[in-house]
From TrEMBL:
Family, as annotated: Belongs to the glycosyl hydrolase 10 (cellulase F) family.
Organismal lineage: Bacteria, Bacillati, Actinomycetota, Actinomycetes, Kitasatosporales
The organism of origin for this protein: Streptomyces montanus
Keyword Signal attached: yes
Domain GH10: start-end pairs: 1-318
EC class (word): hydrolase
Keyword Transcription: no
Keyword annotations: Carbohydrate metabolism, Glycosidase, Hydrolase, Polysaccharide degradation, Signal, Xylan degradation
Catalytic activity: Endohydrolysis of (1->4)-beta-D-xylosidic linkages in xylans
Domain of life: Bacteria
Gene Ontology terms for molecular function: endo-1,4-beta-xylanase activity
Entry's EC annotation: 3.2.1.8
Matches recorded under Pfam families: Glyco_hydro_10 (PF00331)
An annotated GO BP: xylan catabolic process
This protein's name: Beta-xylanase
Amino acid sequence: EAPLRTLADRADVRIGTAVDMAALAEDSTYRRTTAREFNSVTAENVMKWEVVEPTRGAYDWSGADALVRYARDRGQAVRGHTLVWHSQLPTWLNSGVADGTIDAAELRGILRKHITTEVKRYKGKIYQWDVVNEVFEEDGSLRNSIWLQKLGPSYIADAFRWAHAADPKAKLFLNDYNVEGINAKSTAYYDLAKRLRAEGVPVQGFGIQGHLAIQYGFPGDVAGNLARFAALGMQTAFTEVDVRMILPSDPEKLAKQATYFRSLLDACLGTRSCKSFTVWGYSDKYSWVPGVFAGQGAATLLDEEFVAKPAYGALREGL
Ligand code: XIL
């Protein structure tokens, strides 16, 4: 049977997964399956700021380089994740801002250097970059991060301009969760994207994480949401799809989960603007969900033994 990536090639869409570099190093089944099923990969953690610059000025690219090499050798495209976020920042940065040893002007320079250094390092090797991640609250107000507090809202346009200067060919994305359908948060992104593009800021994509839970229901009007970003001339992507449930799983929950995966994929395949569909891990053995959402899990396509769940078949049929 054809793996997902073969079907995705025919459908002219990228099918991706987040990659856990520890699992990639130690688990040959994981290594083999990641190569067989996906034609796109995203670093689950190793391109985040806390990993690449754990000490100020001392970089560790080992994980990111290893992923880019792995992908190149297997004909996979790489999504870059993520340049500006409130989470997983290095301790030296958080504490320097908190104790005032890093002031606003210095912070802006630090951010510019971070973006420029990382994007240049992988210039020509990354097709989509998540430039800013999770910048809005659920009500559509800007998140009160250190970036907003110290630099003001212009940090977003600055980040896109710096990233574009460093790799003019990479498609630059906004990215967030709970923005699958049309709601206050996704509308805040729509308004922001429209304004930035009118101002000539290089933002080309809207990334929808797609962390769903069957107990919360399927979001409304995903197709309409993708369409309005397409109407702005933007690409769209599902960037971190998983569908969790309250444990234990059962056949009914797994069937429902399969329809959620399939509905997101169908929305993507239904618009030419949607270029990639990435899952946030593909085996329950390595999913982030149980560690973060107490009592929940079974959120991915394969079980802990790498056996396909109904969701895997649903994606195959959809492609
Ligand atoms: C998660 C990783 O999966 C975990 O391993 C890590 O401990 C925390 O971050 N939104 C994002 C991702 O944009 O970067 C997050 O990844 C999941 C939520």
